[in-house]
Amino acid sequence: xxISPYSSNRVILWIQRFMFLFVVRRVTGVVLANNTVDLxxxxxxxxxxxxxxxLSMSAVFITVARLYH
Length: 69
Fold this sequence. Notes:
Blueprint: H1 5-33, H2 35-40, H3 45-68
């Protein structure tokens, strides 16, 4: 039985991208957990970007990885 090498490599690629964004989101979340920094960036695009990274990008990357798998 022949297994296409492209399907498993693409899933691994999407999972690696997800893990990279997961690390970036964790770093921004730790920054926002600091009270003094949170007061400075409370109503800025930094918080909006963190929110969109957490919700939308992880859902898109995992959905595409599931579709490939």
